[in-house]
Fold this sequence. Notes:
The chain is of the alpha/beta class. 49% of the residues lie in helices and 12% in strands. The termini are far apart. Strand 1, helix 3 and strand 2 form a beta-alpha-beta unit. Strands 4-3-2-1-5 form a five-stranded parallel β-sheet, with helices on both faces. It is built from nine helices and five strands; from the N terminus they run H-H-E-H-E-H-H-H-E-H-H-E-H-E. The longest helix is centred in the first third of the chain and has 32 residues.
Amino acid sequence: xxxxxxxxxxxxxxxxxxxxxxxxxxxxxxxxxxxxxxxxxxxxxxxxxxxxxxxxxxxxxxxxxxxxxxxxxxxxxxxxxxxxxxxxxxxxxxxxxxxxxxxxxxxxxxxxxxxxxxxxxxxxxxxxxxxxxxxxxxxxxxxxxxxxxxxxxxxxxxxxxxxxxxxxxxxxxxxxxxxxxxxxxxxxxxxxxxxxxxxxxxxxxxxxxxxxxxxxxxxxxxxxxxxxxxxx
Length: 232
């Protein structure tokens, strides 16, 4: 009777070859894994700074940031904030507390964060910078137009700093612009720039904070998950 079984040497040779194939496959898989790890895009993680931490501490399930750089834009932002909060309540059944919202006043919009006393004291010197006469009188404002609840004819639609802050909205005020404007006011009035700067900072509205630069705060807000709306 013939024996069709493989001799021991044949089986060892076959198993050896099988081992080499398995080892080769493992090496190939390891090389492929390493290559994949090297070519996979690294997930970006922004650097965090203590100065920006307040943005991450505001409560709310939605985050919105309204950027303003002109007087008209800053006035319009009050209406935008009102519309966003109102629509969220009307359509989604939500509340103001659902929103972490920041309005940034920078560049030409910066004075809109200041008190009526500042606008009255420096109205003549601010007129050219603000470049926004009262549409009713065509004269320069002598009080902050965002403190006028009866002015539905303005782009704010009667929404004021006080009413919007009362709904939980925070304000960011550009420090670089404040510094620049204090110098301009000092030259116009013969005053001291540092003293005027301190006066301006002390006058900012409730719910506002100074930020190093409005443009910087606007970009940092996106790193904290805020959707940015430009009011102009």
